[in-house]
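ok trying this again, last paste got cut off
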Amino acid sequence: MSTIKQFQVTFDCAEPERVARFWCEVLGYVVPPPPEGFATWEDFNRSQDPEDQGSWFACSDPSGVGPRLYFQRVPEGKVAKNRVHLDVRVGTGLVGEERLAALEAECARLIPLGAVRVRLLYDGNDSCIVMQDIEGNEFCLD
């Protein structure tokens, strides 16, 4: 028998803290306290070498159930579709128009945060809204 492993989901991005705070709003996640010995994340960043300042940020599920999300700065921009994406489960157990209404309501909440609606996938019963985060990473409202 293998044991269940904990994991985190890592995003490559240009602005780690900005993207992390976006996902905190989407998922209800929180920013963990700064490393021991630092009163704030700003204090921690100032202690780093200039090239490392702001190079990563993280957020976590306050209930401890969901995976930690880690955001790391990379020099290159996004150039193709994600090979992995998050499905934000807001319509679980719903079907048809009721499901679609729940997805549309969440989409309307996320657009002012900087999310972009890409397309609706709807067959009259099941639905999904493909979106992008503030740096163009695809995710789905499911």
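PB: full thing came through this time. The two ends are 32 Å apart (CA to CA).
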